[in-house]
């Protein structure tokens, strides 16, 4: 099941009727600056370009210029196809008359491409992109300001989603066996990472009396501090 974000003035499935027949998690928000700033994490963004191609083109270009890291789909009608080109910066388009099988196939292909990119040194989930090659990470398309150890810790946890690590294990894996600092160092770095992850702080979960793990989806409740 994918998390989909539909940018449209129409806040129901009439934008893309067949989408209601699929099991994906769909959120609708208005394509205005305030709503976009508070947009939830998503796997794919679908932009309603059925009626106002000029505004849709401007919004698509703005999203790309601000560093959107998730696939961007355009929802268009037959008449609008003539106005769509590569300059929009969209990854794909879907006709508003498309059936559920076609929509689901396009979504699956987009998700599969993300997975393939992960194999090339990128880890992506819930609005977070970690680029191992450049030692950098982006949150909702914006660069994260991290120290080297913060990045190494985040990368290590993300490389093993769902697996729980004790603080001793994290010290050995991230800081090395020759590190003589205490295990509280891990707690300090975890707190800093959660603060920098903001609304996605739940990606780093705490298992009480055991350790920390990387969650594939953001948890609603995070146990503060250490364990």
Describe the structure.
By secondary structure, this protein is α/β, with parallel strands linked by helices. It folds into two domains: 3-118, Response regulator (Rossmann fold); 125-214, Winged helix-like DNA-binding domain superfamily/Winged helix DNA-binding domain (Arc Repressor Mutant, subunit A), CATH 1.10.10. Helix content is 32%, strand content 20%. The chain has six helices and eleven strands. The strands form three sheets. Strands 2-1-3-4-5 form a five-stranded parallel beta sheet, covered by helices on one side. It has a four-stranded antiparallel beta sheet with strand order 6-7-8-9. Strands 10-11 form a two-stranded antiparallel sheet. Strand 7 (128-131) and strand 8 form a beta hairpin. Helix 4 packs across helix 5 (167-175) and helix 4 crosses helix 6 (184-197). The chain is elongated. The two termini are 32 Å apart. Residues 219-227 have low confidence and may be disordered.
Concise overview:
With 227 residues, the chain is of the alpha/beta class. It has helices at 33-37, 53-65, 100-118, 148-159, 167-175, 184-197, and strands at 3-7, 25-29, 44-48, 72-76, 92-95, 122-125, 128-131, 136-139, 142-143, 204-207, 211-214. The longest helix has 19 residues, at 100-118.
Main attributes of the structure:
alpha/beta, Arc Repressor Mutant, subunit A, 11 strands, 2 domains, Rossmann fold, disordered C terminus, single chain, 227 residues
């Amino acid at each position: 099941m994918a998390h989909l974000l539909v940018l449209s003035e129409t806040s129901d499935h009439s934008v893309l009727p067949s989408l209601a027949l699929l099991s994906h998690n769909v959120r609708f928000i208005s394509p205005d600056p305030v709503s976009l700033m508070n947009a939830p994490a998503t796997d794919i963004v679908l932009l309603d370009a059925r009626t106002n191609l000029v505004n849709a083109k401007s919004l698509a270009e703005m999203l790309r210029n601000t560093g959107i890291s998730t696939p961007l789909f355009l929802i268009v009608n037959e008449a609008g196809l003539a106005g769509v080109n590569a300059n929009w910066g969209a990854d794909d388009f879907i006709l508003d008359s498309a059936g559920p099988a076609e929509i689901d196939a396009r979504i699956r292909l987009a998700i599969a491409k993300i997975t393939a990119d992960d194999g090339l040194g990128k880890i992506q989930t819930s609005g977070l992109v970690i680029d191992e090659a450049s030692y950098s990470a982006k949150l909702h398309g914006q660069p994260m300001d991290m120290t080297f150890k913060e990045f190494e810790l985040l990368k290590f946890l993300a490389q093993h989603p769902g697996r729980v690590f004790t603080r001793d294990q994290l010290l050995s894996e991230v800081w090395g066996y020759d590190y003589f600092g205490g295990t509280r160092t891990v707690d300090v770095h975890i707190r800093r990472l959660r603060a920098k992850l903001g609304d996605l702080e739940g990606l780093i979960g705490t298992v009480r009396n055991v350790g920390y793990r990387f969650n594939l989806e953001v948890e609603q409740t995070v146990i503060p501090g250490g364990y």
